[in-house]
C-alpha cells in the first residue's frame, strides 16, 4: 500500500487527512497541537491517522504539510535576532517604514507601530553603490568594513543576516560579494540577499521581505530538521513537502532557504482544496469562504486557479511574497457584538477567541458573540456537542445577547438576528472586494464554504451575493489539510523589466521569459521533479507608463514571437484595465515585471465520483428545532449528515449536522448530496 | 443655527441602517483604492493626496473626508440643481468658486450627481492633487506670486461630462495649459472613476433596500453622528470657560512673518463656538489658507471622534453644533485674488492650534504636542541627458507630535495615508541620487513621550535644472506640552560642486542647480509630551544605542547617563535627575522654544529674505 498524508497544524488542533493511493479512501483525524514543539504534534497526528487507517509509517509516499510556524512568529514577534546590512545612508529604511500613517485625519494619534524586526542597533550601513536605472557600479564595497560590521553583529548575538543594498534589483553582484565575505567567516550563519528574495524595485518592501525571511529562518530550520528526524526515527522515508502561501509546495530543504514563502501556508490549503473540488464538479469559477473562530478568509477562483497576489500581509507588516489573494475580515464565530455610542451595532473584529470563547461554551465568557447569536436563533441545535463532548449553555448565550437587545429596544431573538446579519454583511463586504471590486460578477460564480463556522452562514451569504451553487465539502473542518493534498510543487521566478512598448519587441520579452523558465526548470529538477512533469506559465505585469498598478497578463512565448508580439499584451491589458476601472488611456504600455511560474505536478489525491445511493431523507432526520428565519420561529428538521446517501435530495429550511460542522439551509432552497459527498445547495424555484 | 431636518424619528430597521452605513464606509475606501491604483501622479498614487465624499441630495456629506461645499459649487456654476442630469460630472479647481473646499489650484475637484428613478438622491465627489496646472512654476505652487492668476489655469465649476459624454474640447483646453498634460488627463479620469464607483454602490443600495429606505438611512446616519458628537461635547468640554491659543507660521516666503493665528473656543450648552478673530490679515505671498468653514467643523469633530471614539462615522450631521467665526481678509479668509498655492503651512498650523486648544480644554483627559508643521515639498525640474523634460514633485515628512500613551513617530506623515516615494523609484525615473534618508537625531522634543524626529534627505542632482521647495518651522518651534520640550526646527543647505555651502530659507523658487549639486533637506521634529525625567531611563539608553538620541541629549534633557557603549549608568542617572529636578525653572503648559520677540523675529525674517533675494537676483 502507498499513502499520501496532509497535515494542517492549527492553534488548537492538528488536522490530518490520509489518502490511500490504491483504494482512493480518505481517512480523517484530529489531534491536539503541541505549540511548545510543533513537530511532536505533527508526528502524533501522522501516527494516529496511519494507525486509524491500518497503515504503517513506512507506507507514506509523501507528506503535504501546512504550518503556521512563520505566521505565529510574525504575529507574536518571536523570531530570530537579525542583523541588517544596507547601503550607507539607508540605515533607517525599516524604522521610517515609508512614513505611512493610517487614515483618517488624526489617524496618527492612535497608530501603533511595532519596532523593526531588525533593530537599529543591529543595522549597519556600508559603502558600495549601484546606479539606477543602468545598474552600473559607481562605488565599490570595502571588504574590511564589511568584515568588521559582521564580526560586531555576530559578537553581539545576531542569529541571521540580511543584506539589502540600494538598487540591487538591477545588479546583485555587490550583495553577492557581501554574502561571500560573510560565508567565508561564518559558514553556518543563515544569510539572505534581497535581490534573490524580491528582485524588484522598492527598497522598503524588498528589505522588509528579506528581513522576514531571516527572522524566520533559524526556527524554521530547527523545526523542519526536528520533523524530518522524528519522521525518520518513526520509520517514514516519505518525502516532506511544505505548503507555500501561494498554495504550491516546496521541499523541506527549499523551505529552509525561503521561509518567508510560508507566511500564509495554512489558509492557502483551503482555497486550493475548494478550487480542486469545485473544478472536479465542473464549477471552475467559485468564491471561497473560510470562516473560523476569529476571522474569515475569502478568495476568488477562476478557471480552477485561485487569484494570486504579490502583497502578503501579516499583522502590521505588508511585504512582497507570492500568495493566494486572500481577503481576511475580522468576522468569526467568536466575534464580539457591541452597541456604539451612536446606537449602531458593530460585530468584531474583537473576538472571544478559544478561551474563554463564546458565552455558550460555559467557560466564563460573558461577551455576546456570533456563536451565541446562532444558539439563540436555534441555528445550533441542542443535540450538537462542542468538540463532540461539551453541552452548549443556551441560557448563557441568551444572557449574553440580552444587553444588545436592551440597548436597541428589541427582543433577544431580534438582537441575535441583527448580530448574524451584521457579521454576514461584513463577510459580504469581503467577498465583494475580491469579486465586484475587481470587475467580476459574483452571480457567475459558485460559492464553496468551509471552516468551522462557514457552513452556518454560507447560505445567507450566497443569497446576498447571488453566488450559486453553494458547495459544502464533505469535511468542511479539515479543508486545508485536504487542500494540501491537491497542491503541486511550485515556485515563481521573476525579474524587474521596466521596459516601455516600442523600446522592446516580442522576441526580447519572450527571450527574457525563457531565461526565467530555465531557472524554474532547474529549480524543479532540484526539487526532484522530472522534466516530463514540468509545466510553466508566463506573465507580464503591465501598467501604463508610471502608473503604480501591475496587472498580470498571462502570455505565451509563441504568441510573443509571432507577428502580434507585444500588441497582444497591450490588448489584453487594456481589456482588463477597462473591466476593472472603466477607462483606458492614450499612454504607452510599460512592462514592469516578468514572471515565470514553474509547476511540477504530483498527484497527492484523486477525487472519484461515487455511484448514486440515494436514501430517504426522512431516515436521516434526528429531530426538529425551532429556528428563526426572517424573524419567525420555524419548525426545522435536523439531519445527520452521515446518514445522507449520495444523490439524496431535500429542501430547506434544514439543519445538517456533520462531524465537524453544522450546515444551515435557508427556507426555499434545495439540497442534493453530490457524487463527492459534498452538499450542493441551490435556490428553490420560488426564488 | 436651527435644528436640521434630519433630526427626527427615523422609520428604518436598525440593522438595515447599520448595513447601509457600513456599505457607505466601505465604498469610501473603495473610492480611494480606485483612484490610487489608476492615477499616474505619484502624489496621488504613492502619497494618497486625494479625498472622497458621498453626500445626500441636499449636498450634506454623509460619509467622507472633506467639507461638503456642494451648494457653493452650484452657486458659482451656471447650473441650478434642476440642470443636473444622470452622467454629469462637474469639475473645478478654483478655490474661490467652491468656498475653499479645495484650497489651491492643483487640487482638482469632481462632483457627480447621483440619480435613481430619475430622482436626484445624492452626490459623489473626489479631489486630488494634479502634478501641474500651469502658472509660473512647475508644480503650480509658486513662492513668488501675489495673485492666484500666477498659480495656473482655473476651471470654474463646469460640466466636464454631460450625461456621460466627456467634453473633449474642454479637457484638451485644460490639459493644454499644464506642463504635464497626460498626467492631468489620467488623474482626472481616475478621479471620475472614483466618483463612478460611489454612484454604482449607492444605486446598488437602492436596488437592495429601496430608494426610500436609502434616503431615510442617509438622514439617520447624519442624525446618529450628530448624537454621538453632541455626547462627546457634553461629556468632555467644560462649559462656559474660554480656551485660547496662539501660534505662528514662519513667513510667506516673501519676507512677511511671523504670521499669527489666534483661536478661541467656548462651549455653551451642546454647542461649541470657535472664533479666529485676532488672526493676522492676509499676506502678499502664497501661504494664505482659504479655510472652508464646513471643513473646519469637520476637522473639529474629527479630532474629538479620533481621540475618544474612533469608530464613529464623521459627516455633516453635527455641523449645527459647531459655530465658526473667521474674520474676512485674514490669512484664513483671504480676499480674491490672493495667492493660495502653499496653503499647507497655515493648514498645518491651524491643526496645531486646534490640538493645543483641545489639550488645554480637555484637561487631564488628553494632551498632544505640536507637529513639524506643514507639508514640506520639493519640485526638481529640468531636461535630462536624453533631452526629455522631467519634473519631480515630492512631499516630505517630519516629526509626529508626542501623543497620549505614545511617542511621536520619527519621520512620519502627519497627513493620513501618505507614503514616501521609494528612493529606488526616484533614482530610476529621475536624474538624481539619494545619498541619505534618515531620522534626524535629537530633533524631536524630549518628554515622557518623545516627539518624533524630523527627517534628513540628501539629494544629489544629476542634471541641470531648478528646484522649488516649501517648508516651515525654520524660525518657530513645534511646541512641547505638559513639561515636554519643543522640537528642533527645519534647515536647508545647498552644496555646490565647488564645495560652497549656502543655507537656504524654508521657501524658495526656481533656484538653478547643476549636475553634481547636493541639497540637504532637513525637516522639523514634533514636540514632546510630559516631563522627560519621567521617561524610562532604560529606554532612553536603548534609544542612545539605536542612534536616535545622543548621549548628550540623554544627559541634558532626560537626565540619563550612559556609558561609552550606551549602557545605562543607574547611579549617575539618579543623581543627574535629582540635580535637574532641583535646579530647573517650573515649566509652563507649553514650551515654545527660544522664540525671539515678535518684532525682532519679523525683522530677522525680512532681512534674511532680502539677503537671499540679493544673492539670487
TrEMBL record, chain A:
- GO CC terms in record: cytosol
Domain called Acetophenone carboxylase-like C-terminal: residue spans = 507-680
Domain named Hydantoinase/oxoprolinase N-terminal: residues: 5-183
Hydantoinase A/oxoprolinase domain segment(s): 206-492
Q: Name one GO molecular function term.
A: 5-oxoprolinase (ATP-hydrolyzing) activity
Which InterPro entries does this UniProt record tie to the protein?
ACX-like_C (IPR049517), ATPase_NBD (IPR043129), Hydant_A_N (IPR008040), Hydantoinase_A (IPR002821), Oxoprolinase-like (IPR045079)
Extract one GO BP annotation from the record: glutathione metabolic process
Quote the protein name from its UniProt record: Hydantoinase/oxoprolinase family protein
Automatic annotation (TrEMBL), chain B:
Where's the Hydantoinase B/oxoprolinase domain? Answer: 13-532
Which GO cellular component terms are attached? Answer: cytosol
The taxonomic lineage of its organism, from the top, reads: Archaea, Methanobacteriati, Methanobacteriota, Stenosarchaea group, Halobacteria
Start and end residues of each stretch annotated as Disordered: 564-597
Q: Which Pfam families match?
A: Hydantoinase_B (PF02538)
Which GO biological process annotations does it have? glutathione metabolic process
Q: Which domain of life is it from?
A: Archaea
Report what the protein is called: Hydantoinase B/oxoprolinase family protein
Basic and acidic residues compositional bias, start-end = 572-582
Instruction: Specify the species.
Output: Natronocalculus amylovorans
GO function term, MF aspect, one: 5-oxoprolinase (ATP-hydrolyzing) activity
Amino acid at each position: 500500500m502507498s499513502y499520501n498524508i496532509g497535515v494542517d497544524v492549527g492553534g488548537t488542533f492538528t488536522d490530518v487527512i490520509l489518502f490511500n493511493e490504491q483504494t482512493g479512501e480518505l481517512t480523517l483525524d484530529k489531534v491536539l497541537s503541541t505549540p511548545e514543539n510543533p513537530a511532536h504534534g505533527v508526528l502524533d497526528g501522522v501516527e494516529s491517522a496511519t494507525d486509524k487507517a491500518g497503515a504503517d509509517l513506512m507506507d507514506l509516499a509523501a507528506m503535504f504539510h501546512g504550518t503556521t510556524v512563520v505566521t505565529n512568529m510574525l504575529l507574536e514577534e518571536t523570531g530570530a535576532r537579525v542583523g541588517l546590512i544596507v547601503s550607507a545612508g539607508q540605515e533607517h529604511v525599516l524604522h521610517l517604514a515609508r512614513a505611512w500613517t493610517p487614515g483618517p485625519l488624526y489617524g496618527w494619534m492612535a497608530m501603533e507601530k511595532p519596532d523593526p524586526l531588525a533593530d537599529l542597533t543591529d543595522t549597519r550601513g556600508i559603502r558600495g553603490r549601484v546606479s539606477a536605472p543602468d545598474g552600473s557600479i559607481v562605488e565599490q564595497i570595502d571588504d574590511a568594513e564589511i568584515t568588521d560590521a559582521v564580526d560586531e553583529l555576530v559578537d553581539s548575538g545576531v542569529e541571521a543576516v540580511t543584506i539589502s543594498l540600494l538598487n540591487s534589483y538591477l545588479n546583485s553582484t555587490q550583495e553577492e560579494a557581501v554574502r561571500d565575505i560573510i560565508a567565508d567567516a561564518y559558514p553556518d550563519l543563515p544569510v539572505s540577499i534581497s535581490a534573490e528574495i524580491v528582485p524588484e524595485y522598492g527598497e522598503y518592501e524588498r528589505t522588509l521581505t528579506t528581513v522576514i525571511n531571516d527572522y524566520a529562518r533559524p526556527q524554521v530550520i530547527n523545526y523542519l530538521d526536528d520533523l524530518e528526524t522524528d519522521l525518520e526515527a518513526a520509520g517514514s522515508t516519505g518525502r516532506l513537502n511544505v505548503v507555500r502561501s501561494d498554495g504550491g509546495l516546496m521541499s523541506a530543504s527549499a523551505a529552509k532557504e525561503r521561509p518567508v514563502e510560508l507566511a500564509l501556508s495554512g489558509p492557502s490549503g483551503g482555497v486550493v482544496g475548494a478550487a480542486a473540488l469545485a473544478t472536479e464538479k465542473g464549477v471552475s469559477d467559485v468564491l471561497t469562504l473560510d470562516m473560523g473562530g476569529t476571522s474569515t478568509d475569502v478568495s476568488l477562483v477562476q478557471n480552477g486557479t485561485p487569484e494570486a497576489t504579490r502583497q502578503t500581509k501579516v499583522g502590521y507588516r505588508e511585504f512582497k511574497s507570492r500568495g493566494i489573494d486572500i481577503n481576511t475580515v475580522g468576522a468569526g464565530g467568536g466575534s464580539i457584538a457591541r452597541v456604539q455610542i451612536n446606537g449602531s451595532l458593530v460585530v468584531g473584529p474583537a473576538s472571544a477567541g478559544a478561551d474563554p470563547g463564546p458565552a455558550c461554551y460555559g467557560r466564563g465568557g460573558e461577551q455576546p458573540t456570533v456563536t451565541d447569536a446562532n444558539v439563540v436563533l436555534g441555528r445550533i441545535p441542542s443535540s450538537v456537542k462542542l468538540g463532540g463532548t461539551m453541552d452548549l449553555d443556551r441560557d448563557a448565550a441568551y444572557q449574553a445577547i440580552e444587553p444588545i437587545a436592551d440597548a436597541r429596544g428589541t427582543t433577544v431573538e431580534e438582537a441575535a438576528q441583527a448580530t448574524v446579519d451584521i457579521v454576514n454583511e461584513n463577510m459580504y463586504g469581503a467577498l465583494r472586494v475580491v469579486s465586484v471590486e475587481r470587475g467580476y460578477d459574483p452571480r457567475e460564480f459558485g460559492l464553496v464554504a468551509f471552516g468551522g463556522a462557514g457552513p452556518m452562514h454560507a447560505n445567507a451569504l450566497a443569497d446576498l451575493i447571488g453566488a450559486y451553487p453553494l458547495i459544502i465539502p464533505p469535511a468542511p473542518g479539515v479543508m486545508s489539510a485536504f487542500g494540501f493534498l491537491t497542491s503541486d510543487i511550485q515556485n515563481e521566478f521573476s525579474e524587474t523589466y521596466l521596459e516601455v512598448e516600442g523600446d522592446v519587441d516580442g522576441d526580447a520579452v519572450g527571450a527574457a521569459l525563457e531565461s526565467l523558465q530555465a531557472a524554474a526548470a532547474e529549480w524543479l529538477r532540484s526539487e526532484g521533479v522530472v522534466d516530463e512533469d514540468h509545466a510553466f506559465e508566463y506573465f507580464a505585469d503591465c501598467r501604463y507608463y508610471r502608473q503604480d498598478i501591475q496587472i498580470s497578463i498571462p502570455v505565451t512565448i509563441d504568441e510573443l514571437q509571432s507577428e502580434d508580439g507585444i500588441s497582444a499584451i497591450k490588448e489584453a491589458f487594456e481589456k482588463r484595465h477597462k473591466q476593472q476601472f472603466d477607462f483606458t488611456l492614450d499612454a504607452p504600455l510599460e512592462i514592469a515585471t516578468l514572471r515565470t511560474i514553474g509547476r511540477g505536478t504530483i498527484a497527492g489525491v484523486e477525487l472519484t465520483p461515487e455511484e448514486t445511493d440515494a436514501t430517504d431523507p426522512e431516515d436521516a432526520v434526528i429531530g426538529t428545532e425551532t429556528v428563526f428565519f426572517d424573524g419567525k420561529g420555524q419548525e426545522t428538521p435536523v439531519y445527520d449528515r452521515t446518514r445522507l446517501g449520495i444523490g439524496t435530495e431535500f429542501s430547506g429550511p434544514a439543519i445538517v449536522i456533520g462531524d465537524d460542522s453544522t450546515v444551515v439551509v435557508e427556507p426555499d432552497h434545495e439540497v442534493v448530496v453530490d457524487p463527492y459527498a459534498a452538499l450542493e445547495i441551490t435556490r428553490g424555484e420560488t426564488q | 443655527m436651527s435644528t436640521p431636518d434630519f433630526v427626527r424619528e427615523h422609520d428604518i430597521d436598525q440593522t438595515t441602517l447599520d448595513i447601509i452605513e457600513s456599505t457607505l464606509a466601505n465604498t469610501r475606501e473603495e473610492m480611494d483604492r480606485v483612484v490610487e491604483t489608476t492615477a499616474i501622479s505619484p502624489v496621488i498614487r504613492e502619497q494618497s493626496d486625494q479625498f472622497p465624499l458621498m453626500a445626500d441630495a441636499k449636498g450634506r456629506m454623509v460619509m467622507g473626508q472633506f467639507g461638503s461645499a456642494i451648494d457653493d459649487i452650484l452657486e458659482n456654476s451656471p447650473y441650478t440643481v434642476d440642470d443636473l442630469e444622470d452622467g454629469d460630472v462637474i469639475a473645478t479647481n478654483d478655490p474661490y468658486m467652491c468656498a475653499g473646499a479645495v484650497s489651491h489650484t492643483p487640487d482638482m475637484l469632481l462632483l457627480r450627481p447621483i440619480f435613481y428613478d430619475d430622482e436626484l438622491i445624492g452626490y459623489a465627489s473626489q479631489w486630488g492633487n494634479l502634478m501641474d496646472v500651469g502658472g509660473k512654476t512647475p508644480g503650480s505652487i509658486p513662492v513668488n506670486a501675489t495673485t492666484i492668476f500666477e498659480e495656473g489655469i482655473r476651471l470654474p465649476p463646469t460640466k466636464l461630462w454631460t450625461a456621460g459624454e466627456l467634453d473633449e474640447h474642454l479637457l484638451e483646453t485644460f490639459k493644454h495649459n499644464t506642463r504635464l498634460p497626460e498626467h492631468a488627463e489620467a488623474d482626472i479620469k481616475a478621479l471620475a472613476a472614483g466618483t463612478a464607483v460611489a454612484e454604482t454602490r449607492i444605486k446598488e443600495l437602492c436596488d437592495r433596500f429601496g430608494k426610500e429606505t436609502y434616503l431615510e438611512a442617509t438622514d439617520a446616519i447624519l442624525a446618529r453622528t450628530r448624537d454621538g458628537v453632541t455626547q462627546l461635547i457634553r461629556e468632555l468640554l467644560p462649559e462656559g470657560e474660554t480656551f485660547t491659543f496662539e501660534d505662528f507660521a514662519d513667513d510667506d516666503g516673501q519676507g512677511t512673518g511671523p504670521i499669527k493665528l489666534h483661536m478661541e473656543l467656548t462651549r455653551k450648552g451642546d454647542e461649541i463656538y470657535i472664533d479666529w478673530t485676532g488672526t493676522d490679515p492676509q499676506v502678499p505671498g502664497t501661504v494664505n489658507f482659504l479655510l472652508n468653514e464646513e471643513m473646519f467643523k469637520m476637522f473639529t469633530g474629527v479630532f474629538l471622534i479620533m481621540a475618544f471614539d474612533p469608530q464613529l462615522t464623521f459627516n455633516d450631521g453635527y455641523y449645527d453644533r459647531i459655530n465658526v467665526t473667521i474674520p474676512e481678509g485674514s490669512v484664513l479668509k483671504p480676499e480674491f485674488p490672493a495667492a493660495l498655492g502653499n496653503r499647507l503651512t497655515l493648514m498645518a498650523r491651524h491643526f496645531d492650534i486646534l490640538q493645543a486648544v483641545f489639550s488645554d480644554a480637555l484637561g487631564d483627559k488628553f494632551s498632544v504636542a505640536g507637529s513639524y508643521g506643514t507639508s514640506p515639498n520639493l519640485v526638481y525640474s529640468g531636461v535630462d541627458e536624453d533631452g526629455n523634460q522631467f519634473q519631480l514633485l515630492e512631499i516630505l515628512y517630519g516629526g509626529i507630535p508626542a501623543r497620549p500613551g505614545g511617542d511621536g513617530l520619527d519621520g512620519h506623515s502627519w497627513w493620513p495615508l501618505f507614503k514616501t516615494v521609494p528612493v529606488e523609484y526616484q533614482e530610476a525615473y529621475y536624474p538624481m541620487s539619494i545619498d541619505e534618508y534618515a531620522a534626524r537625531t535629537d530633533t524631536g522634543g524630549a518628554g515622557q513621550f518623545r516627539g518624533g524626529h524630523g527627517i534628513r534627505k540628501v539629494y544629489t542632482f544629476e542634471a541641470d535644472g531648478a528646484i522649488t521647495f516649501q517648508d516651515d518651522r525654520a524660525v518657530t518651534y513645534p511646541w512641547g506640552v505638559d513639561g515636554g520640550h519643543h522640537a528642533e526646527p527645519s534647515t536647508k543647505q545647498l552644496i555646490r560642486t565647488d564645495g560652497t555651502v549656502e543655507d537656504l530659507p524654508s521657501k524658495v523658487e526656481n533656484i538653478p542647480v547643476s549636475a553634481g549639486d547636493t541639497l540637504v533637506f532637513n525637516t522639523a521634529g514634533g514636540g514632546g509630551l510630559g516631563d522627560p525625567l519621567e521617561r524610562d531611563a532604560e529606554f532612553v539608553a536603548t534609544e542612545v544605542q539605536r542612534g536616535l538620541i545622543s548621549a548628550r541629549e540623554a544627559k541634558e534633557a532626560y537626565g540619563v547617563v550612559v556609558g561609552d557603549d550606551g549602557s545605562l549608568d543607574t547611579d549617575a542617572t539618579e543623581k543627574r535627575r535629582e540635580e535637574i529636578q532641583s535646579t530647573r525653572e517650573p515649566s509652563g503648559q507649553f514650551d515654545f522654544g527660544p522664540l525671539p520677540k515678535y518684532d525682532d523675529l519679523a525683522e530677522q525674517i525680512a532681512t534674511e529674505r532680502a539677503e537671499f533675494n540679493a544673492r539670487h537676483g
